[in-house]
Amino acid sequence: MEGIKFCFLFFIFFGEMVSMMEAHIAHYDEFWLKQAEAAKNAAQSEYHPRPVEVINQLNHEVRLSVKGRNSTRRPLNKYNGPCTATNPIDQCWRCDRDWAKNRQKLADCARGFGRNATGGKGGKIYVVTESTDEDMVNPKPGTLRHAVIQPEPLWIIFEHDMTIKLSQELIMTGDKTIDGRGAQVHIAGGAGLTLQFVKNIIIHSIKVHDIKSASGGMIRDSTSHFGMRTQSDGDGISLLGATNVWIDHVSMWNCQDGLIDLVECCTAVTISNCHFTHHNDVLLFGASDTYTQDELMQVTIVFTHFGKGLVQRMPRMRFGFAHILNNDYTHWLMYPIDGSSHPTILCQGNRFVAPADRNAKEVTKRTESPESEWKKWVWKSDGDLLSNGAFFIPSGDPGNQFPTTEEIISPQPGSSVSSLTKFAGYLNCVENSPC
Ligand SMILES: *[C@@H]1O[C@H](CO)[C@@H](O)[C@H](O)[C@H]1NC(C)=O
Ligand SMILES: *[C@@H]1O[C@H](CO)[C@@H](O)[C@H](O)[C@H]1NC(C)=O
């Protein structure tokens, strides 16, 4: 009995130690303990018990949007003049020439597992006027760092084009939208964005690149608290225990660690319309094979272009569930889809164009697991367009390809992907004109 108890305690302790190392919090004070606890509860309550409902809704909308675009009759979603939005997320807002007056309309446009993300909806507009990032403890009003630590919902926009070189990781509070439309906003050359134990964030239409590890130190994380941080990893956007997050139309390249990392039970996340290039380890969903709570992870990747100069991990996933729908994988050097610890991966209607290298034609890779083990994991390819010799090795009991008895709607096929992802990445929106 004592032995079991000891084992159990040890396990908890070990788990917590891993957390602390990954969280870059030098000291878990009362503030962070509370945040971490709230994040755990949020992940549990945001976990969708019927993922098929979310998957089918999105597939249905994509198919309707393509059909609507092709029909000679006026489609239901209005597009006037030159607007060429090609997928249901974009059609939700891009054709409005008054988008700059109706910025918060975007908050109704999330789809997939992150569809409840509303960011700073209902809050004030905060205009970032300065690109500097000097004081980590008392950030200057008008800077991005000052905007993201405020306690209330905020819709953050930029007065003019700017490159923000973050001196240390940018620690965001919840209920925020970072909306780069109307300006060229680069977050580059310094530290990256950190979404730690927070809820409800939208990041839209910015470029994040050349992010480097930063030394850490005293950093303010909210108006009521600051604390000591250890060295950051150099990820572009790092999500840790974050829920209801939507990353849309973000261009990212060449960061020191990952482009986007989801660790410690992030869930209800959508990555859409992004454009990723020139990077090795692209997306990491789950960092540890012992962190079983990552079973709660539910992520949608949709309308994203995995482009030039990418190597591997699009994503690399542990535990959890990923719906990978209608993305364009045009470049990889090793393989795009990788996992361990029995993640569930549903690839639908993507295009996978294999590189010339004869040893890199396989789309899938199972890391450090014998076939007897991985053949039980549910990895499914449905409607994917596999070209230039690309092949996908599915797994899972063929009689039960997916952990549900409900039917999954077939996707818009991979042949539509070049149109669906045509505007992937940062958007150059001009006021008084459809974007
Ligand atoms: C749309 O119309 C074009 C031209 O008629 C046709 O080639 C294409 O297959 C149609 N696409 C869909 C998705 O129906
Ligand atoms: C979104 O919110 C609704 C209403 O609270 C909830 O039923 C649903 O599970 C949430 N998550 C998703 C992915 O829809």
Automatic annotation (TrEMBL):
Q: What is its EC number?
A: 4.2.2.2
Q: What class of enzyme is it?
A: lyase
Keyword Cell inner membrane listed = no
Q: Which cofactor does it need?
A: Ca(2+)
Query: What residues does the Pectate lyase domain cover?
Result: 161-358
Q: Give the reactions, separated by semicolons, that this protein catalyses.
A: Eliminative cleavage of (1->4)-alpha-D-galacturonan to give oligosaccharides with 4-deoxy-alpha-D-galact-4-enuronosyl groups at their non-reducing ends
Output the Pfam families linked to this UniProt entry.
Pec_lyase_N, Pectate_lyase_4
Q: Which InterPro entries match?
A: AmbAllergen (IPR018082), Pec_lyase (IPR002022), Pec_lyase_N (IPR007524), Pectin_lyas_fold (IPR012334), Pectin_lyase_fold/virulence (IPR011050), PEL (IPR045032)
Question: How does the cofactor bind to this protein, according to its record?
Answer: Binds 1 Ca(2+) ion. Required for its activity.
Family label: Belongs to the polysaccharide lyase 1 family.
UniProt-recorded name of the protein: Pectate lyase
Which species expresses this protein natively? Centaurea solstitialis (yellow star-thistle)
List the lineage, top down. Answer: Eukaryota, Viridiplantae, Streptophyta, Embryophyta, Tracheophyta
